[in-house]
Design goal:
The strands form four sheets. The chain has an eight-stranded parallel beta barrel with strand order 3-4-5-10-11-12-13-14, surrounded by four helices. 30% of the residues lie in helices and 16% in strands. The protein has 355 residues and is an alpha/beta fold.
Length: 355
C-alpha cells in the first residue's frame, strides 16, 4: 500500500491516512458574532476523508481577532455553531482539531471590542495593512502587555481549549507561526521586553510554553499540537538567531509531549525539518507546497509522519480520492479565498465516485 494511505497513531488518535488538511483562513464566519456559518459545516464535511482536519485559525478571546469574518471559540453561540461542524465531520468518520490563533499586533481597533488597541509583547507595529470590514488599513502601533496581564491571556487559551472539547473537537493546535502573538513573544525582532517574558531565549519562549502547558493540562498533551514556521517572515516577524530559537523551543517541548509538531516549509534555504525532527518524540506533520509525489517521498524516507496540504484541499474536497485514482486536480480560484458566500468555498467539483 502507498505510504500516504496507511493509518498512523498521532497522540490519542489513529489517523486513517496520512493526509492532513492545513488550517486556512477563509473569512466566512459572521463578523459580529464570530460564529462559523452553516456553509462551514458543508465545507469541512466535504473534506472529512482527510486523516486529520485542522481548522482555520480561531480566536480564543475577543482581543485575539485579527481578520474580518473569522470565527472565535469564546462564546456559547460559537461553541454551538462549531458543534454542527464537528458532528458533520464525525458523521463521515473524520477527525478534526481546532487551531487557536491569537493575532496580537496583527489586528486593528476596527476588529476589536470597544475599538481597543491591539496587544503585543512590545509596542512595535507590523509592516503592511490589515483587512477590516471597511477595507485595508495600516497596522497600528500595538499596546505592550503589562506583565500581570499575560497570565490572563494564557488562561484564555486554556478556556478556549475547554470550549473546543465541549464543541466536539478531537484536539487543538496552537498557532505559533505566521507572526501572531506566540511568535511575537518568541522572536527577538518583535519582543524587546525586559521582564520575565523578554530578553533571553528562555524568557522569550516562556509564553509559548506556558500556553501549550495550559492547553495540555485541559485536553491532555496527546490531544494538543503546535504549528511553527521558522523564518517565514509573515507579518514582518523576525528573529536574530532563528535556528537557535527553534532548536531551544522544540527541545523544551519534549517535557510537554504534545501529540505532534506541525512544521510549515518556508522560503528559508535552511532545512529546519532535519534540525528539529530528531529533537521531537511525537509525530512530525510537514507541509508547504507539497504535491502527491513529494508527500509520498517524505513519508517513505521517514522525514515526516503525515503530509499537510493547504491549497490542494481548498480546491479538491475529495483530494484523497483524486490521489487514489490519479484523477486530475481542480484549478484554484484565488479571487475567492477570502470572499463571503459559497463561491470558491463549497462548490468545487467532487468526483462522482466520491459523493
Amino acid at each position: 500500500m502507498n505510504a500516504l494511505y496507511e493509518n498512523i497513531r498521532i497522540g490519542r488518535h489513529t489517523l486513517r491516512n496520512r493526509l492532513v488538511m492545513a488550517p486556512m483562513t477563509r473569512s466566512r464566519a459572521d463578523d459580529t458574532s464570530g460564529t462559523p456559518s452553516s456553509l462551514a459545516v458543508q465545507y469541512y464535511a466535504q473534506r472529512a476523508d482527510a486523516g486529520l482536519i485542522i481548522t482555520e485559525g480561531t480566536f480564543p478571546s475577543p482581543m485575539g481577532k485579527g481578520y474580518v469574518r473569522t470565527p472565535g471559540i469564546h462564546s456559547a453561540a460559537q461553541i454551538e455553531a462549531w458543534k454542527r461542524v464537528t458532528d458533520a465531520v464525525h458523521a463521515r468518520g473524520g477527525l478534526i482539531f481546532l487551531q487557536l490563533m491569537h493575532c496580537g499586533r496583527v489586528s486593528h481597533p476596527d476588529l476589536l471590542p470597544g475599538h481597543a488597541t491591539p496587544v503585543a509583547p512590545s509596542a512595535i507595529a507590523a509592516a503592511g495593512k490589515v483587512f477590516t470590514a471597511s477595507g485595508a488599513q495600516d497596522f497600528v502601533v500595538p499596546r505592550a502587555l503589562e506583565t500581570e496581564e499575560i497570565p490572563g491571556i494564557v488562561e484564555d487559551y486554556r478556556r478556549a481549549t475547554r470550549h473546543a472539547l465541549e464543541a466536539g473537537f478531537d484536539g487543538v493546535e496552537l498557532h505559533a507561526a505566521s507572526g501572531y502573538l506566540p511568535e511575537q513573544f518568541l522572536s527577538s525582532g518583535t519582543n524587546q521586553r525586559t521582564d520575565r517574558y523578554g530578553g533571553s531565549l528562555a524568557n522569550r519562549a516562556r509564553f509559548v510554553l506556558e500556553v501549550l502547558t495550559a492547553m495540555a493540562d485541559e485536553a491532555g498533551s496527546d490531544r494538543v499540537g503546535i504549528k511553527i514556521a521558522p523564518e517565514m517572515g509573515f507579518n514582518s516577524v523576525s528573529d536574530a538567531s532563528p535556528q537557535e530559537t527553534y532548536q531551544y523551543l522544540v527541545q523544551r517541548l519534549a517535557v510537554l509531549k504534545p501529540a505532534y509538531l506541525h512544521v510549515a516549509r518556508t522560503q528559508s534555504t535552511f532545512n529546519y525539518r532535519a534540525l528539529l525532527q530528531p529533537l521531537f518524540d511525537g509525530a512530525l506533520l510537514y507541509g508547504g507546497g507539497l504535491n502527491k509525489e513529494r508527500a509520498q517521498s517524505l513519508i517513505v524516507e521517514g522525514e515526516a509522519d503525515a503530509a499537510v496540504f493547504g491549497s490542494l484541499y481548498l480546491a479538491n474536497p475529495d483530494l484523497l480520492q483524486r490521489f487514489l485514482t490519479g484523477a486530475s486536480l481542480n484549478m484554484l480560484e484565488r479571487d475567492t479565498f477570502y470572499s463571503d458566500g459559497p463561491n470558491g468555498y463549497i462548490d468545487y467539483p467532487i468526483l462522482e465516485n466520491a459523493r
